[in-house]
């Protein structure tokens, strides 16, 4: 599905000028219909999957208790 640069920027939570810069640099694939650039939103499916996986891994890391250090000696 093709979307405008403005819609793509909203979906990615990025400023519109940054998405346009990425399009012009070739970092985001797009087609030009003569008046505007259209971005195929299917190219971001993998990005969003990886983003969700990373968020889950961060939550697991944050909820993992810190193990006791075996080198700490009791000085009582």
TrEMBL record:
Highest taxon of the lineage: Bacteria
This protein is called what? Excisionase
């Amino acid at each position: 599905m093709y979307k405008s640069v403005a819609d793509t920027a909203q979906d990615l939570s990025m400023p519109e000028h940054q998405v346009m810069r990425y399009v012009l640099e070739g970092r985001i694939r797009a087609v030009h219909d003569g008046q505007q650039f259209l971005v195929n939103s299917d190219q971001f499916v993998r990005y969003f999957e990886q983003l969700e996986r990373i968020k889950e891994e961060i939550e697991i890391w944050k909820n993992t208790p810190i193990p006791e250090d075996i080198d700490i000696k009791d000085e009582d």
